[in-house]
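Students often ask what a holo structure prediction actually looks like on paper. The answer is less mysterious than it sounds. You provide the chain, you provide the ligand, and the output is a string of discrete structure tokens encoding the 3D arrangement of the protein together with zinc ion.
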Amino acid sequence: MTTTFTSTVLGSPRIGPHRELKRATESYWAGRIDADALQAVARDLRRQGLADLRDLGLDSVPVNTFSFYDQMLDTAVLLGALPDRVASVADPLDRYFAAARGTDTIAPLEMTKWFDTNYHYLVPEISPSTTFALDPSKVLSELAEALSDGIAARPVVIGPVTFLLLSKAVGTDEPLLSRLEELLPLYADLLGRLAKAGASWVQLDEPALVGDRTDEEIEAARAAYEQLSALSERPSILLASYFGSLREALPALASTDVEGFAVDLVAGQDSIGSVPELARKLVVAGVVDGRNIWRSDLDSALSTLGALLGSVDTLAVSTSCSLLHVPYTLDAEADVDKALRSWLAFGTEKVKEVVTLATALTQGRESVEDEFALARAAASTRKDDRRLNDASVRGRLAAVLNSATGRAPAAERRAAQDELLSLPPLPTTTIGSYPQTSKIRIARAALRTGEIDEAEYVNRMRAEVAEVVALQEKLDLDVLVHGEPERNDMVQYFAEQLDGFFATANGWVQSYGTRCVRPPILYGDVSRPKQMTVDWITYAQSLTDKPVKGMLTGPVTILAWSFVRDDQPLADSANQVALAIRDETVDLQAAGIGIIQVDEPALRELLPLRAEDQRAYLDWSVGAFRLATSGVADSTAIHTHLCYSEFGAVIGAIAGLDADVTSIEAARSHMEVLDDLSSVGFDLGVGPGVYDIHSPRVPSVDEIAESLREALKAVPVERLWVNPDCGLKTRGSVEVEASLRNLVEAAKLVRAEL
Ligand SMILES: Nc1nc2c(c(=O)[nH]1)N[C@@H](CNc1ccc(C(=O)N[C@@H](CCC(=O)N[C@@H](CCC(=O)N[C@@H](CCC(=O)O)C(=O)O)C(=O)O)C(=O)O)cc1)CN2
Ligand SMILES: [Zn+2]
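The corresponding structure tokens follow.
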């Protein structure tokens, strides 16, 4: 076996410590900089990022984890699997972006959730006519770049099994794994070239194997790695899994000649000792959580590592997954209180933990005793901090949970609501946000820097609300929204106002492409010191006689898009957030708001990867939503909104939410979701999105009308609502106005046919 290593991470963030890549890429798209300038920014970020990892002390550094958009798209390029429709774009970089974002004439690849994270990947399309062909230029050039900087580089590539399992079969019902034998020669070629280029290790990522897999799939994976590991010209293979346990896939894969296994010992609990073949392999132990931001318990991590040493010869320390999912460094946060800061570890700090643990393993714990002492001290102040145990929050929650959290039967509620609202059939509405123009973001940036004061900021946002209300009246929509201009993000906005959360200033994490989020840190018991949305909503309502929807984010989504406590069950945190949202619904109702939407777009996202864990999750998540929404009168309509999902596995839970109206992404799944909903006896209001807001295209009156007629086959007219499939914040104002004009016209057309 080649030289081994002792410390690494499975991948690192790439957007830039200050989102340099986002800015450069968006500038390139806008035509403000050229491709050379964009490449220069990318190269500097890569070289600095790798040098940082080396200087922090890692003795194996992942490369090819950089991406201009997404690692699955990069793998599609590597394997020659871009769809035919982008072939007409001559320039490779522009072709790549065309596949990612589409053009005026080319539809982009679909985007979907990367396992149970808030990262989204592009779904490669593989059809019977796809002819795979290797294009290793990206990984080879990133490897060469790193080696020339003297970095112990380990190329990272998504493995063939995960690539196929996560891709979409087009024009065939044949499972894509049947294409494995076409891919293996390409991977073999790639491994040969990487070895020749100087790589001693290659990391092949196979996270798809931590989900429920059939025996056939596991056998296909085993056979694939048997074949790859039988090659003579190749680097040592590190087969990396993360986000859970490999279970029965682990012994199967360990029976091959693959040299190393990276296992997630935070989200997973594979028993390494029970797989005898691992004794002679490198085990890369993911003991530092790559997905959350808490400082590691070094003592417990070291004891896990010590136990492993009893059963394996060679051991390396790592993060549980790529650091893509956490911010770069805590150093970029000026405003964290001292106690909270001592409990946290972002990307750089996690790399240091990995190095500390590796040093403890190789040179004894005494050599890094100071680090261990600091970690111990932090754990003890965290445990004792009063913010984590607020008796009044806990008492109130227990009391509310002891009273009933159900509402009257839906039919009774509908009667009470209809009387108050008197809406036409097929009521039209939108999901909440209107375009977040740069004018809005610049105002918020100016408030941050002190260039304008709070009063001026509120004036400007109110002017935006007034414009959005006027537009909706002009378009003749039935249920209006205030447009959410005051919200930087639908989760962060609430976290900033709730006790128990810390909102970072610079903790950016990539969500997809150039879009980033700053997940708030939920560290303590949650309470709502004051009203959060009532002033904005009542202001909007004061401008119109039509109903304005209150607009809140639900507890499950707030948790899904935050870094959450690891010292209590997620269900307990969900209920605390739910109680705060419930307080807000009650205040909105008291202020005269008759419809309150509580968004849960991430309901599907937190669904556990293994089926056996899903029931318990659905129980507590539905429970938290009902806790949040059952404090209001029967005459107050509760709406919810879901998106970004394949709803299959949660369809029963959607009925369980018991919302009076559910708007749901459906423009791309052609109303299938309506049939699924009827199959679980769903008999509440529903607004299947009638156009796809993820594209700038303006839908015609005819196509919207046609999809409404379709929907009416599955849903009686009394229950059908008309709306886009998500909020409009990422769209431009011109296309939004045109699209909504057509939406209202289509609704009127179909109403006239009733
Ligand atoms: N948390 C979260 N997760 C989610 C979604 C979501 O909406 N929120 N939607 C889904 C898809 N993911 C998305 C994630 C991000 C964005 C998005 O638009 N992000 C914005 C940032 C939003 C934000 O936080 N805006 C802040 C900060 C904006 C900013 O960058 N300001 C400039 C200055 C102003 C300017 O020059 O524009 C700066 O700080 O430098 C604000 O409005 O205040 C972006 O990357 O551009 C969209 C969808 C799933 N997951
Ligand atoms: Zn949505």
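The chain has a mean pLDDT of 96.
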